[in-house]
Amino acid sequence: MADQALIDTLNDLRARELAVIVQYMRHHMVMTGADAAALAGDFKSISIVEMKHAEALGERIDFLGGDPTTKPTEIKKGGDTLESAASIDLASEKEAVELYKKAIKQADEAGDVTTRRLLEDILADEEDHVNDFQMMLGK
Ligand SMILES: [Fe+2]
Ligand SMILES: [Fe+2]
Questions:
Q1: What separation in Å is there between the alpha carbon of 131 and the centre of ligand 1?
Q2: What share of the chain is helix, strand, coil (3-state, %, to 5)?
Q3: Rounded distance from Cα 1 to ligand 2 centre (Å)
Q4: Per-residue pLDDT reduced to its tens digit, 87-113
């Protein structure tokens, strides 16, 4: 029997993924300036990775008997320059890393090995994204 608290956590994570898909794709579109010309495409690529996360979480939620949410959390705006976009999105990624780590523990406690493995794969991508945005900011 599926763990309702774990399904709820997966849906919270999916809602965040839906938000950052829109947030990063918007930054890809609105960013201006010389740095933006070189790097705006990276925001689009990262947004597409987030789509894959949202889809994988949705499939797992459905498998566990839950209803995959269609409602994003807050979409942060700004991002008219590379520095603005990368700072906002770096904060979102750092938050994601913490939330995925917590969810991995929860999946472990629920004895759900498959969900834990899925969350670990996504966490690895989020850590890459932290690195991507930090590099854009010269950190
Ligand atoms: Fe993600
Ligand atoms: Fe990410």
A1: 14
A2: 80, 0, 20
A3: 30
A4: 999 999 999 999 999 999 999 999 999
Residues around the ion ligand 1 (C-beta < 5 A): 17, 50, 53
Closest-approaching ligand to the CA atom of 122: 1
Q: What sign for the dihedral angle of Cα 70, 9, 127, 137?
A: positive
Which ligand has its closest atom nearest to the C-alpha of 56? Answer: 1
Question: Is pLDDT of 1 > 60?
Answer: no
* Tokens coding 34: 């010389």
Residues 13-65 pLDDT 10s: 999 999 999 999 999 999 998 888 889 999 999 999 999 999 999 999 999 99
Encoded tokens for 7: 């399904």
Give the largest Cα separation in the chain, rounded: 54
CA 111 / ligand 1 centre spacing (Å): 23
pTM of the entire structure? 0.96
Amino acid at the residue 37: A
Percent of the chain with pLDDT over 90: 92
Pick the CATH number of 4-65+73-136 from 3.40.50.2300, 2.30.110.20, 3.20.20.70, 1.20.1260.10: 1.20.1260.10
